Backbone:
């Protein structure tokens, strides 16, 4: 327990807050702790979570990416257009296409950052504008409504009838879990992942130790691009349409959730668990407010307050409170 | 004399002016109506909104932070003014309510900025996160108050502010000019502006020098909020309506304009003059493309590519200088 | 060990950069398991030599190089690493967010091809390295939570994991307390006993002289000589490094008749310092010495209003001072030159001019309420002249200046506030030995003009020469007061370093 607090202080705090909210909501609203509600929470947040772990890798490596949601739109549009042009395609082809396109867009960011020594926020704000502008220009803002059948049919992986209705888990949740596990495996259990942490933590030290800097940037932004692409495909699958300007603006919400989850702007710190907690805290709060009958317009306001409150208590050190004797070592 | 001017305006100015000239010449030759009064007038009316918002973004970046809440702060300020005007009869409201509403709008802007500044300075949270949270909060608050709709029907005299001209110069442009000059003086000739630059480079060392760095931070974000409020009032009079989310797309463009104007993304360095020129370049680009038949979206793309291009050129210039120094 | 070939045996090493001779015909030899010092001022060629040994630079033709008895025509970074040469730079190049184990066994995480991390093997390797150093650390602790000394041990352990047989340590004791230094030296002894050679690279060698067997001194790219450390003193070493005979003439004078400016009575704060009482008089240089960790910097932070005392009182010119922040201290006429010039003393990327006026913005404000560039220019020009700061343009970044000139800019910043009391916290850290004399000349001139100066230093010789009186601080208390005129340097050093 104490080790967990020491290794993941931000995550531990967030978990405590999440537990409190869940506890409160399960008392306050009978619908909250139903299977149907919990599964729909998962279904509705799969896309955000896929983005979140992609962004996490970039943040760990000391960068920031503003362009991923727009990149997802680009990938979505290009991939679906190509698939339709090919006569439909299938899931395997779809995934292959969005992964390749996503990595490609991520590598554009990485190449600009590394090749010309421009910091990532400048590059990704540029590519944010460039990707979005070009997408809107070439599509003329037109949406694609007739997706191939395989893409637009919801896929239920698990269904269960409860007293209050059907609870189900759909494909995007499975894809999300796979992305989470892949990201976790990458950053925790591969040498490359640990190099990403080291690079974000102390770039000069990493360079001196012989870490390939270009490789780090390429993997971080390539991974983020890949996740953006996958999330884009899932979004199209869920909404059964491709709207070029549907995803713009989501990047900042995801960024807030990931940073809330303990990833540090500046690099070297962050975990998949924190990402999940950050995204779910926001989602659960909104869901709870909805169930409590609060006006939907008030949701976001409350989310803002929750994040502000979480930041404002961030200097409270739980580990130090639980282990006062260790204080002198801090 | 030239040296002094260059020092006062910043080393980026000649390069940016060169770009401006290039853009003007290219569009002057290719777009038939480009160098007409009507077109220049429309540029002059479009520039101030983005310009004032960019000024609001500028000083937090110089102080080593960010203010991602600028758009919604402007919206909230506009909303405040709109409410006051509505209370006094909407389209029939007189000048008094406008003044009262504007003062309240400025106060709302200042309050939201001060709250952010306080959390950043006294809790030490990252400005991106704080302003992001504030942005989400204000967006929610605004949508809650307006139920997602818009408020319109304001007194006709507001059109003077949004669309009028004095001696042939558009009123919004005059407003922007005044704001830019005030900001320039603030940054170069006041203690707070001086401290803002120092805080941007090293907060701790600034504190050790006996400067009240935390108060400086609070003030920076407060002033940024006030500037947002001015933008909000201007937007209200230009659109003759207020909707939460108006100008949303401008948020990252303001950051782009700052970087284009040579503001250091790490803080500590940045000047008003090059940022203003960068804004003019962006607006001219977009208007020229518009005349050539492209839409706003292509302009957005070109803006992004333009920033990348300029950063690459700066990188090249730096390398070239280094090589020259290495040889000498 | 005498039958083993030396770890390093270099001769006739020269290196020229664009016409400048960075190294000229230098020889350098370190035996296996030897603890050696490489001494010299900044710019003497120390780092060039290390970079040649580690293969970063190639020497000019004609150099003779041998590592562990093997003659080598050329050395590449990889070759040096394979032969067991490691460098621990002062900034350590560690990863504060990663665990101790990962930092130590970092080498196993390298490589472009992704591999699975064997967490167990990683811990085992880290544990083994620490065991060889005979120290124990929490392997799962985040490195950033460890004190500097422990991080240095981690850096050494990291070198051991990659089978280092010769470790260069760059300024290793710069920020360590005495206890930490002792622990570090114990580790070095262990290493030496196991046949690993250690070379200390430093220009402050007091702490490491005793466990080293020889010292190689470089000056202006040339070898001055190799000397046994037995009988070597810091003073003699300084002379060898600078080539100048520094006069150790004591300048203390009797100041007991001068009016008191700063009176401190029974000042205490937490476990930082306790019951500190002293008087600082007008025109006096009061030395405050003691080992790092004695509470000197903590005391100066309270005197400068950065922290508040739990008990006791501070009087300035007879009036009791109550300070809520250092702004009150500055307003009252107390100035503080921090020991950490890089992070706290100056704002490195900003200009010399802006740094110089930062503490007196009100003074350069014109009648209009706006800052006056003219006043700023005049003020900066005045202090540049007064303190003989060597600068290019006032608009250049302060980071472009040498340590000595940077320190003069710090002094200018504070003197512009027209202080009554000037606290100098280790003012010569990172300043070349040759440039230190210039700083102290300024200090004495200021005192002669009536400024009351508290001179904090961990080099007893500095305060012995430059102070009128010397206080000795240890364990957070003032434990002694000396008059340099009646107490010889040796006695004072014996008391402080005991």
Residues:
């Amino acid at each position: 327990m104490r080790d967990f607090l020491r290794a993941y202080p931000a995550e531990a705090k967030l978990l405590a807050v999440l537990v409190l909210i869940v506890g409160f909501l399960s008392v306050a609203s009978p619908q909250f702790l139903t299977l149907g509600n919990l599964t729909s929470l998962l279904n509705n947040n799969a896309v955000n979570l896929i983005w979140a772990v992609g962004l996490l890798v970039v943040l760990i490596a000391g960068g920031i990416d503003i362009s991923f949601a727009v990149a997802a739109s680009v990938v979505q549009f290009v991939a679906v257009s190509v698939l339709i042009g090919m006569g439909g395609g299938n899931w395997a082809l779809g995934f292959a296409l969005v992964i390749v396109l996503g990595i490609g867009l991520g590598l554009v960011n990485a190449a600009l950052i590394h090749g010309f020594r421009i910091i990532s926020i400048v590059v990704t704000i540029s590519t944010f504008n460039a990707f979005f502008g070009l997408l809107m220009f070439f599509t003329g803002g037109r949406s694609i409504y007739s997706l191939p059948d395989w893409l637009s049919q919801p896929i239920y992986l698990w269904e269960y009838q409860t007293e209050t209705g059907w609870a189900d888990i759909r494909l995007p949740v499975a894809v999300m879990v796979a992305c989470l596990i892949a990201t976790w495996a990458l950053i925790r259990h591969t040498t490359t992942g640990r190099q990403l942490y080291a690079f974000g933590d102390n770039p000069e030290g990493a360079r001196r130790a012989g870490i390939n800097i270009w490789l780090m940037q390429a993997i971080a932004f390539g991974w983020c691009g890949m996740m953006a692409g996958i999330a884009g495909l899932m979004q199209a699958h869920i909404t059964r349409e491709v709207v070029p300007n549907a995803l713009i603006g989501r990047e900042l919400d995801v960024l807030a959730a990931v940073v809330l989850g303990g990833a540090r702007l500046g690099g070297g710190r962050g975990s998949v668990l924190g990402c999940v907690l950050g995204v779910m805290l926001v989602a659960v709060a909104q869901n709870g407010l909805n169930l409590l009958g609060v006006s939907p317009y008030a949701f976001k306001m409350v989310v803002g307050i929750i994040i502000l409150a979480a930041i404002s208590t961030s200097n409270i050190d739980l580990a130090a409170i639980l282990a006062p004797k260790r204080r002198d070592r801090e | 004399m030239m040296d002094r001017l260059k020092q006062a305006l910043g080393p980026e100015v000649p390069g940016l002016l060169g770009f401006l000239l290039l853009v003007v010449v290219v569009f002057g030759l290719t777009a038939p109506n480009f160098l007409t009064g009507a077109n220049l007038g429309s540029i002059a009316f479009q520039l101030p909104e983005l310009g004032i918002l960019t000024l609001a973004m500028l000083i937090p970046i110089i102080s080593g932070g960010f203010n991602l809440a600028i758009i919604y702060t402007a919206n909230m300020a506009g909303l405040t003014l709109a409410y006051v005007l509505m209370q006094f009869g909407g389209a029939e409201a007189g000048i008094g309510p406008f003044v009262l509403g504007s003062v309240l709008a400025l106060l709302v802007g200042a309050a939201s900025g001060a709250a952010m500044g306080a959390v950043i300075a006294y809790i030490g949270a990252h400005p991106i996160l704080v302003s992001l949270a504030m942005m989400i909060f204000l967006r929610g608050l605004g949508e809650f108050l307006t139920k997602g709709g818009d408020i319109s029907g304001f007194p006709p005299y507001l059109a003077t502010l949004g669309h009028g001209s004095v001696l042939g110069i558009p009123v919004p442009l005059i407003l922007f000019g005044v704001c830019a000059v005030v900001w320039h003086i603030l940054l170069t000739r006041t203690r707070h502006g001086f401290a803002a630059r120092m805080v941007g480079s090293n907060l701790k060392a600034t504190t050790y020098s006996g400067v009240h760095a935390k108060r400086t931070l609070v003030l920076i974000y407060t002033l940024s909020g006030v500037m947002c409020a001015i933008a909000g009032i201007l937007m209200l009079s230009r659109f003759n309506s207020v909707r939460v989310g108006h100008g949303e797309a401008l948020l990252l463009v303001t950051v782009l304009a700052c970087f284009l104007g040579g503001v250091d993304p790490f803080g500590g360095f940045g000047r008003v003059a090059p940022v203003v020129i960068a804004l003019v370049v962006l607006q001219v680009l977009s208007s020229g493309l518009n005349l050539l038949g492209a839409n706003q979206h292509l302009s957005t793309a070109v803006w992004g590519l333009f920033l990348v291009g300029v950063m690459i050129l700066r990188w090249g210039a730096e390398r070239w200088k280094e090589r020259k120094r290495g040889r000498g | 060990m005498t039958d083993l070939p030396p770890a390093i045996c270099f001769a006739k090493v020269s290196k020229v950069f664009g016409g400048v001779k960075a190294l000229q015909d230098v020889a350098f030899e370190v035996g296996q398991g030897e603890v050696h010092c490489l001494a010299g001022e900044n710019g003497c060629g120390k780092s060039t030599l290390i970079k040649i040994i580690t293969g970063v630079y190639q020497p000019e033709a004609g150099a003779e190089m041998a590592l562990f008895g093997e003659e080598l025509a050329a050395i590449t970074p990889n070759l040096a690493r394979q032969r067991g040469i490691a460098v621990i730079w002062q900034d350590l190049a560690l990863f504060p967010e990663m665990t101790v184990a990962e930092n130590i066994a970092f080498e196993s995480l390298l490589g472009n091809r992704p591999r699975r991390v064997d967490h167990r093997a990683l811990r085992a390797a880290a544990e083994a390295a620490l065991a060889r150093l005979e120290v124990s650390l929490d392997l799962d602790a985040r490195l950033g939570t460890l004190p500097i000394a422990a991080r240095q041990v981690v850096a050494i352990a990291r070198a051991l994991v990659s089978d280092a047989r010769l470790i260069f340590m760059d300024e290793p004791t710069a920020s360590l307390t005495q206890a930490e230094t002792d622990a570090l030296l114990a580790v070095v002894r262990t290493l030496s006993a196991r046949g690993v050679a250690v070379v200390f690279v430093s220009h402050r060698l007091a702490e490491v002289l005793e466990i080293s067997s020889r010292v190689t001194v470089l000056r202006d790219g040339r070898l001055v000589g190799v000397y046994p450390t037995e009988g070597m003193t810091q003073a003699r070493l300084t002379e060898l490094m600078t080539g100048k005979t520094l006069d150790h003439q004591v300048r203390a004078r009797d100041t007991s008749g001068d009016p008191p400016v700063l009176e401190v009575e029974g000042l205490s704060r937490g476990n930082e310092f306790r019951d500190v009482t002293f008087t600082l008089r007008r025109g006096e240089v009061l030395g405050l010495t003691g080992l790092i960790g004695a509470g000197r910097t903590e005391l100066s932070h309270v005197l400068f209003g950065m922290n508040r005392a739990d008990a006791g009182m501070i009087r300035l010119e007879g009036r009791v001072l109550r300070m809520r922040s250092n702004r009150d201290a500055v307003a009252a006429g107390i100035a503080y030159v921090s020991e950490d010039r890089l992070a706290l003393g100056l704002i490195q990327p900003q200009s010399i001019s802006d740094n110089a006026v930062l503490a007196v913005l009100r003074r350069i404000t014109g009648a209009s309420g706006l800052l006056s560039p003219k006043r700023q220019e005049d003020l900066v020009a005045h202090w540049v002249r007064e303190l003989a700061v060597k600068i290019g343009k006032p608009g250049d970044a302060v980071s472009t200046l040498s340590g000595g000139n940077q320190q003069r800019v710090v002094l200018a910043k504070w003197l512009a506030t027209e202080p009554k009391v000037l606290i100098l916290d280790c003012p010569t850290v990172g300043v070349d030995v040759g440039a230190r004399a210039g700083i102290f000349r300024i200090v004495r001139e200021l005192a002669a003009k009536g400024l009351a100066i508290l001179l904090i230093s961990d080099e007893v010789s500095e305060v012995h020469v430059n102070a009128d009186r010397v206080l000795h601080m240890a364990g957070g208390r003032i434990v002694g007061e000396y008059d340099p005129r009646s107490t010889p340097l040796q006695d004072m050093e014996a008391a402080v370093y005991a």
User: Anything to note?
Assistant: The mean pLDDT of chain B is 89. Chain B touches chain C at residues 7, 185, 188-191, 194-195, 197-198, 201-202, 204-212, 268-269, 326 (CB under 8 Å).
